[in-house]
């Protein structure tokens, strides 16, 4: 009987099935943690405000006091570095204090009363973010998160190929009736995956913007005039005997009015004599990244030195600026954040149904890993190399696996040659 060579699509299916299984089984514990912490963070503003309402919330009463007057209410051990003025009339003035750990102080903007301080990194959501960001393991944790997120993108793309209906609808777009056990789990895994795919891809891709390998490479490629302004800001011209202007004068010099501004305002100044005031105005809900503008004001003369905004971004810079609003779903407002939460829960469900399927189909002996492809086509190699370059964490993993398999192959070849030599003797 003549051997029929499998088609490229069949071989690709086998390759993707094997890698989907291996990557999924390796990454699912980390992805489950990322999914749960990310789902919590989707509604961080509301939950954090409720948890710390005695610090963050005030009752409006009359006109806001001048920022310079409010600073006088700070305790002696809080040297202000950055102030955040919210357009929400029920929010307190937030002040970042110098030193470590990074403390925040809060002042009632109507009565000038000091409300208290907290260390956000030690609060509930501070811990949630650190788990989501680095698994509480520092730089090593960042690399682990990047590795899992990079492979999550490959899991989604390979899963979409394996899911492709090929003429069927049941088990692809909806659960089939009358199926049980592993088939039911398979349908559940496929249907959850396909509906969560668009949102999860957007979240995972934007999450890589802050990673150690892929993120830093992207930032180098996408750097534009706005990044250059922040990296090399203009400087103030100190005047002999002249004091620095106050916060209110600096805000006014930037053309902003606290009483009418609908954006949040961050204002800070460094300790160096030539440091200018750095002022940022942005959408407090992060829904419209195009509203963000940064200003630099001479700290002595009050002269505006420079400002950069959305129009100064390059095309790639605009993608970077929109990455955080997309990542948390804020770019679509409340519906977007609900979608991010639902997608996070669906990812957590996929981290359960995938291993559960394997557990039901595993053989009595062995792990039940899908077989290795006998031959990998050149287009497949090109695809793997391209993905390895685009996602460095994936590239390093593939290189390590290929090196391991090469060592195993060499060992087996050497063993076979040694056996043949002994037989000849």
Q: Distance N terminus to C terminus?
A: 38 Å
What do we call the CATH topology of the domain at 225-312?
A: Nuclear Transport Factor 2, Chain: A
Strand order of the largest sheet: 4-3-2-1-5-6-7-8
Overall mean pLDDT: 89
* Uncertain stretches: none
The largest β sheet comes out as: 8 strands, antiparallel
Tally of separate helices: 14
Radius of gyration: 28 Å
**Per CATH, which architecture of the domain at 225-312?**
Roll
- Strand runs, count: 8
Question: Would you state the CATH class of the domain at 225-312?
Answer: Alpha Beta
By secondary-structure content and strand pairing, the structural class works out as alpha+beta
- Strand portion: 5-15%
Portion in helices: 40-55%
Order of helices and strands: HHHHEEEEHHHHHHEEEEHHHH
Shape: elongated
Q: Your description of this structure?
A:
- The protein is of the alpha+beta class and 425 residues long.
- Among the domains are: 53-122, no CATH class; 225-312, Roll (Nuclear Transport Factor 2, Chain: A); 378-424.
- Helix content is 53%, strand content 10%.
- The protein is built from 14 helices and eight strands.
- The chain has helices at 8-41, 44-51, 53-56, 67-71, 124-134, 139-163, 181-207, 214-222, 225-231, 247-253, 315-327, 333-361, 378-390, 392-424; strands spanning 80-85, 93-97, 104-107, 114-118, 264-269, 277-282, 293-297, 304-309.
- Strands 4-3-2-1-5-6-7-8 form an eight-stranded antiparallel beta sheet, with helices on both faces.
- β7 and β8 form a beta hairpin.
- α1 packs across α6.
- The longest helix has 34 residues, at 8-41.
- It is elongated and about 95 Å long.
- The two termini are 38 Å apart.
- The model has no long low-confidence stretch (mean pLDDT 89).
């Amino acid at each position: 009987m003549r051997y029929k060579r499998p088609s490229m699509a069949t071989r690709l299916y086998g390759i993707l099935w094997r890698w989907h299984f291996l990557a999924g089984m390796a990454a699912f514990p980390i992805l489950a943690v990322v999914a749960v912490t990310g789902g919590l963070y989707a509604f961080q503003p509301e939950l954090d405000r409720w948890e710390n309402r005695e610090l963050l919330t005030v009752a409006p009463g009359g006109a806001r006091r001048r920022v310079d007057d409010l600073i006088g209410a700070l305790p002696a051990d809080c040297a202000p570095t950055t102030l955040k003025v919210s357009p929400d009339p029920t929010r307190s003035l937030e002040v970042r204090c110098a030193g470590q750990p990074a403390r925040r102080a809060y002042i009632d903007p109507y009565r000038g009363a000091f409300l208290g301080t907290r260390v956000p990194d030690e609060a509930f959501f501070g811990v949630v973010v650190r788990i989501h960001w680095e698994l509480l393991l520092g730089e090593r944790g960042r690399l682990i998160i990047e590795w899992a997120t990079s492979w999550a993108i490959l899991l989604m793309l390979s899963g979409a190929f394996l899911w492709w209906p090929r003429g069927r609808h049941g088990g692809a777009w909806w659960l089939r009736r009358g199926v049980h056990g592993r088939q039911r789990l398979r349908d559940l895994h496929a249907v959850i995956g396909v509906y969560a795919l668009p949102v999860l891809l957007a979240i995972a891709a934007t999450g890589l913007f802050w990673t150690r390998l892929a993120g830093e490479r992207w930032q180098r490629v996408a750097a534009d005039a706005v990044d250059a302004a922040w990296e090399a800001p203009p400087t103030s011209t100190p005047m002999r005997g002249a004091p620095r202007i106050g916060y209110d004068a600096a805000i006014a010099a930037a053309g902003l009015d606290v009483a009418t501004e609908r954006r949040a305002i961050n204002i800070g100044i460094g300790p160096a004599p030539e440091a200018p005031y750095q002022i940022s105005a942005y959408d407090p809900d992060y829904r419209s990244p195009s509203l963000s503008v940064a200003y630099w004001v001479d700290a002595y003369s009050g002269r505006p030195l420079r400002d950069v905004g959305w129009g100064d971004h390059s095309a790639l810079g605009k993608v970077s600026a929109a990455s955080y609003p997309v990542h948390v779903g804020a770019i679509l407002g409340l519906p977007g954040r609900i979608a991010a939460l639902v997608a996070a829960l669906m990812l957590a469900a996929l981290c359960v149904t995938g291993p559960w399927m394997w557990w039901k189909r595993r053989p009595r002996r062995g792990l039940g890993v899908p077989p290795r492809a006998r031959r990998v086509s050149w287009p497949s190699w090109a695809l793997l190399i391209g993905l390895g370059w685009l996602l460095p964490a994936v590239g390093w993993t593939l290189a390590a696996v290929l090196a391991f398999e090469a060592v195993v192959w060499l060992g087996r070849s050497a063993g076979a040659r040694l056996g043949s030599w002994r037989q000849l003797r």
